[in-house]
Specification:
Elements: H1 4-16, H2 18-54, E1 60-65, E2 83-84, H3 85-94, E3 100-115, E4 118-127, H4 131-134, E5 138-142, H5 147-151, E6 156-160, H6 161-167, E7 178-181, E8 184-193, E9 203-207, H7 208-215, E10 220-221, E11 223-227, H8 233-251, E12 261-265, H9 266-309, H10 311-319, H11 324-357, H12 372-398, H13 402-407
Parallel strand pairs: 4-9, 6-8
Antiparallel strand pairs: 1-11, 1-12, 2-10, 3-4, 3-7, 3-11, 5-8, 6-9, 7-8
Helix pairs in contact: 1-11, 2-9, 2-11, 2-12, 9-11, 9-12, 11-12
Length: 409
């Protein structure tokens, strides 16, 4: 049953201390608001990092070469180290952990590509059939490079969405149409979309051996990309080391030479980024919790002030027969009421602010969000903390001596 008299007294007390109550409620609401915003922002950062890594297979190794920086077995430093088709075949034979593998041959980052009377410069890359899987390309039309294209040195191309929109805008399909790459005709067999967007959509992929034979007559490979399937993170590190040692031995370079052979372990980078994000989220939790504690302390302080201001009133109540339980209940209830209202206002404003931020997307920030149950649980904990904050003032009020209280000014 609702005690209307008690609620009337609570509202009367709040009305008499409007500024104090407002400032206290603001402190509580701000604490919850900041907690929700900070957790949402932390999740947004984590979503941004995860989205960036979705653009490629997570358990993958990316192998690049450069110049040797250390002498080895009588060979001087400064040698240009190149991967070849033989290295591609050798890794397949030696490492059962490799699930997918592709070489890359970069014709140029600004190759002249034409279609009819249109000319643009795009990145043209030679690749193997597994390249599309490792780079997580989504086919919008047609197919990707297959092994027959490699074996028969076919002049076919898989083009990015932006390339299609530039050359074939208004046409039903780009499949079967021709584009000229450095003066040589290639038939379009597929159109792809890449989650990384940007310049990745301005690429053309062709069979790697076709590119090698047509433009260089060498079997050089500029980059090797390997997917290890569901290999555990710890085993990924071991395979990375084994591959580095194997290639170092084949290329006659010091295994400790960081420039001659460079391997980028996607899984390790992902783990590092996620560890950093978890640390940032932990810091955000700490800041948010301290903001809430500040609000709870504010509730406790205002309740102490209210008890002090109402000393005479409480003394009269006790003289007329009010029990300590009723005195404690009144102060306790007022404390919970202020904390609950302010807490849920802060929760609502925080969720509303995150909804407004949903449209903001950048390279490392996407979809800021907070687990609603975590937010509600934090608010409930705040209300309980507010109740505890009002407990000491309530006890102080219950212990007031009626005679002393009535005599006080």
């Amino acid at each position: 049953m609702i005690d209307f008299d008690k609620w009337q007294e609570i509202f009367d007390s709040i009305n008499r201390h409007r500024l104090r109550t407002l400032l206290t409620a603001f402190g509580v609401a701000w604490g919850i608001f900041m907690l929700v915003i900070l957790l949402g922002a932390g999740q947004g950062l984590q979503n941004g990092i995860a989205y960036n890594f979705e653009g490629d297979a997570l358990n993958s190794l990316w192998i690049n070469t450069g110049r040797s920086t250390k002498p080895f077995n009588g060979l001087k430093e400064g040698r240009i180290i190149k991967l070849t088709n033989d290295d591609y075949d050798y890794l397949i034979d030696q490492f059962d952990q490799i699930q997918k593998i592709s070489g890359k041959y970069f014709l140029s980052w600004s190759t002249i590509v034409t279609h009819k009377n249109k000319t643009q410069t795009y990145s043209v890359q030679g690749t193997h059939p597994d390249g599309g899987f490792i780079e997580s390309l989504e086919l919008l039309e047609g197919r990707y490079i297959n092994q027959k294209d490699i074996d028969e040195l076919r002049k076919v191309a898989v083009i990015g969405r932006d390339v299609r929109d530039e050359f074939f805008k208004g046409e039903d399909t780009a499949i079967g149409k021709e584009v000229m790459i450095e003066g040589t005709a290639y038939s379009v067999v597929g159109v792809f979309y890449d989650k990384e967007e940007g310049r990745t959509m301005q690429r053309l992929y062709v069979p790697i051996k076709t590119l090698q034979r047509t433009y260089s007559n060498f079997d050089h490979i500029d980059q090797l990309i390997l997917d290890m399937g569901d290999l555990p993170f710890e085993d990924m590190a071991l395979v990375e080391t084994a591959i580095k040692n194997t290639l170092s031995e084949r290329k006659l370079v010091d295994p400790e030479d960081r420039q001659a052979i460079r391997i980028w372990n996607m899984a390790r980078e992902y783990q590092s980024f996620m560890g950093l994000m978890n640390a940032i989220k932990g810091i955000m939790w700490v800041v948010g919790i301290f903001s809430i504690i500040a609000g709870v302390i504010g509730v406790s302080n205002i309740m102490l002030i209210i008890v002090k201001d109402r000393t005479k009133e409480i003394g009269i109540r006790k003289a007329l027969g009010a029990t300590p339980k009723s005195i404690v209940g009144m102060i306790f209830q007022e404390s919970i009421f202020i904390t609950a209202i302010a807490g849920y206002i802060g929760l609502g404003l925080g969720i509303g602010a995150l909804a407004l931020l949903q449209g903001i997307e950048s390279e490392f920030f996407r979809r800021p969000e907070v687990n609603i149950w975590i937010a509600i649980s934090a608010t409930i904990i705040l209300i309980l903390a507010g109740a505890l904050a009002g407990f000491l003032p309530a006890l102080q009020a219950a212990r007031i001596n009626p005679v002393t209280a009535i005599k006080s000014d």
